[in-house]
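Researcher: I need the complex structure. Ligand is magnesium ion. Inputs:
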Amino acid sequence: MTEVVKVQDITKTYGKKGQKQYQALKGISFDVQRGEFVGIMGASGSGKTTLLNILSTLDQPTSGKVLINNRDITTLNKNQMADFRGQEIGFIFQDFNLLDNLTNRENIALPLSLQNVKASQIKPKVEKIAERLGIDQILDKYPAEISGGQKQRVASARALVHEPAILYGDEPTGALDSKSATELLETMKDLNENDKVSILMVTHDPYSASYAQRILFIKDGKIGNELKKENKSREEFYQEIIAELGRR
Amino acid sequence: MLWKLSLTGIKSRFKDYLVLFSGLTFASAIFYMFMSIATNSTFLKGSIAIAFKITQLVFGFGIALLAIITFVYIVYANSFLLSMRQKDYGMYMMLGARTSKIGALIFLETLVVGLFATILGTAIGIGLTQLVSQLLINQLGLQIHKFIGFYIPALLWTLVFFAALFFLAALWNRHKLVKSNVIDLLHENQKPVKLRHNPVWKFIEAILGLGLLAVGYWAMANYKVLLTNSIGIGFFTIVIGSYFVFDSFFTAIVNLLRKNKNFEYKKLHSFTLGQLKFRLGDYTRILSIVSLLFALALGAITVGLNFNNMTEQALESTYYDAVLYQESPSVKKQLKKVSVKSETTLDYKLVENKKEKIPQILYIPENEITDKKLKFQHFYMDKNGQQSYSTKTFNVKDLKDENSDRGHEMRYQLASLTPYPDAQVKVVSQDQYNQLKAKNQYVKLLLVNNFRSNFANIEKLQKMSVKQMVGQPEVESKSIEVSLTNSKSASYRFISSIASGFEFMGFFLGLAFLAMLASTLMFKVLSGANSDKPRYNMLWKMGARKSLLKSSIAKEIGVLFALPAVLGVIDVLFGLQFFKSILKNPYDKIWIPFAIFGVLYVIYYILTVVLYQGIVLKKENN
Ligand SMILES: Nc1ncnc2c1ncn2[C@@H]1O[C@H](COP(=O)(O)OP(=O)(O)O)[C@@H](O)[C@H]1O
Ligand SMILES: [Mg+2]
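Model: Output:
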C-alpha cells in the first residue's frame, strides 16, 4: 500500500505577527492510503476546514509538510498550486459551489477544459461519469433547475471527471436532506469500493462519518483518537462513533 | 450604534466607495463644464451672429442629451452603491435593527455621498472648464474669446440638477431596502437566473434589427431625397434596430459559439460565454444606449474637426495671400516677418470722371496681363452641388470681351486686386497707357509659405497696408474698406471664427458624451462585480490560474465594451453621409477623431477591467 496523502506535523496560525494571533492547527500528522476512505470528525471550529484548505493548496501551513502522490505541495508556487489543484484534487463543498451560469454539462467539463483536454474527448468523459452518478438525464439543465441532491451529484461528477488522486469533501452532506445525504454517501462508498477512489471527508456528523473506513478525531487543532471500521457493519460502526464522542 | 456600524461598513469598502465617489464627482464636473460653456454668453458672443443660433440649438440639444445620460449614469452608479450595501444592511436587519432606521440610514448615506460628490465635482468642473477651454483653444488654434470658468448660472443649474437626482436616488434606495425582506438582501447574489428563449422570435428579431439598421443607414445616405425626414427616420430606425440587434443577434452569436465545442471547451471559454449569455440579456438596454451615445459622441468629434476644412475653403477662395498697396517703412518692416514665396506687381492708373455712371476707370496696360500671368480663383458649383474653386489666368482677349460672362468675371477679379473694386476696368496698349494723365500706381501681390502658421503676421501686414492706403488724402476710404474684406486674411478670419465655434463644440460635446457613456458602462459592469466574486473564487479553487481568471475577465468586459463600439462606429460611418450636405468631405482625415476617441475609450476599458479584477479576485498572499 502507498500513501496518497502524507501530512507531517503541520501547524497553522492565523493573524499577522504582532497582531492578535490564533493557532488553528497545532501539529497534525496522518496518512491516507491509496483507495482509502478516511473521515475526519470534529466539532465546529476545531480546524477541519483549515486542514482541508491546506491539504488542497487553497491555504498554506505555517509549518510542516504535505505530500500528495509523493509531491511536497507546500513548496509549489502560485501557478503550480493552481495546476496541481486542477489535476490532482477533486473537491466537493457543503454549498455545492456550482457555477450557476453554466449548464451541468459545462460545469462538469470545466476541469477538463482547464487541462486542455481535447473537446472530442471531453464529451465521452463527462457522459461516462454522469451515467456513473445517475445524472445523465439532467446534463443540459442549469444548476438552478435541479434539486440539492442532484446538485451535489453534479458537483461530485465535476470533482471526479479528471480522475484526481484524491477526492476531498468538506461537509458534503451538510446542506442535504437525510434521503439525499444517504444517497450521496452510498455513492461515495460505492466509488471508493468499486472504482478505488481515495476519499478524505471532514464532517461533524457521526452518520456521515460512519461511511468511512477509518475516522480521525480532531479537537482544538490536534488529532486525538482513531477509529477503524474493519469488519463491523455500518450500524455497529455508527454506535462506536457515538460512544467515542460521548467519552470526551 | 448603527451609525458606527454603517461607518465601519464604508471604511471596509473604502476602495469601492472611492470608485463610486470619483465617478459621481466626475459626472458633476462634466455636467458643470458643459453647462458653463453652453450658457456662458461670453463664449457665444465670441462666435459670429450666424453661428450663434446654430450654437444655441446644438448646445440645447446637447444639454438635453447630457441630462438624460447623467440620469442613466446616476441610476447605474446608484445600483452599484446598493449592490455594495445590500448585504451589510441585510445583516443589520437580521441582527434586529429597525427597518425604518435602516431606511433612514441608506437615505442619508446616498444623499451625503451624492451631495459631497456634486460639490467637489463642481469645484473641479470650474477648474477643468478653464483648463480644457484654454487647451482646446490653443491646441486647435481656435479664434474664440477667452472666458472665465466660474459662472454662477451654470453652478446653480448643476447643483439643483444633481441634488434632485440624488434625492430621487436616496428615496429609491430607501424604498428598495425597506420593501425587500432580509433573506432577499442577504442572498441577492444567488438569485436563480431565468432563461426564456423562443428561437423563432429571436430569429425574426435579428432579421428585423438588421433590416431597421439598414433602413436607417439608407435614410442617412439619402438626405437629398428625404431632406429633414432622414433625421427622423434614421433616429427611429437606428434606435429600435440597435435594441433588436443586441437583444437577438449577439445572443445568437454567443449561442453559436457555445455550440462549437472546440471553442467552448477551451480553458475558461465556456465560463466566459456563460457570463456573456446572461449578461447580454441584462445588458440589452444599456448596450443599445451606449452604442447610440458612442455614435453621437464620435460623430460630434468627427464633424467638429471636419469644420476645420471650412477654413481650407476660405484659403481657396482667393489666389493671392496678401495684397500690398503702399510700402511705407513700417509695412516693409512687417513684410520681413513674412516668408514670401513669390511676389508680382500690377501697374494701373485711376481716372476719375464724376459725370459717368461708373465714375472710376481703372486703366491697365496689356503687357502687364500678358507678361505677368496673373491668376484668380474661379468659383463654380461642382456636380455634387458643392462650392468649388479652380485657378485661372487672366488674358487680354477675355478682358476686352464686353459681353461674355467670362469677361465680366475677369474684370471684376482684376479690379478686386486694386483698392478700387468698384471701378470699371479698361485694358489698353502701353502707348495709350503712357499718354493717360494720371499717376502710375501699383499693387504688390504676394504668395507666402505657410499661410496658416504665419497667419497673425500676414493679417497684420494686410491691415497695415490697407490703413496706409486709407491715410492717403486723395483716396476715398469707402472703396478701400471693401478691399480689406476681400483679402484672404479677412475671409480666413471670418470663416475660421465660425468653424472654430463648431469645432470647439463638437470636440467638447464629444468628449463629454464619451466620458459619460464610458463611465455609465463602467458602473453597469462594476455593479455586477460583487455577485461574480464567488464564481471566480470557485474557479480559483478548481485550479484556474489567477492569470487565466484575469484574462477571462478582460475578455468578458472587452466584449461588453466592444459590441456597442462596433455598432457605434458603423453608425458614424453611415451617419456622416448626412453631413455631406454641409461639409465638403466628412470622411476627410477621419482617423484622427477615431484615434482620439479610441484611445480614451480603451483607457476606460482598462480602468474598468482593473477595478473589476480588484473587486472580484482575492489577493493571494505569498
Ligand atoms: N481566515 C481566518 N482568520 C482567522 N481565524 C480563522 C480563519 N479561518 C478560520 N479561523 C479560525 O480557526 C478555527 C478553525 O476554523 P475552521 O477550520 O473553519 O473550523 P471547522 O471547519 O472545523 O468548523 C476557528 O476558531 C476559526 O475561527
Ligand atoms: Mg468548516
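Model: Summary of the prediction. Residues 1-191 of chain B form one domain.
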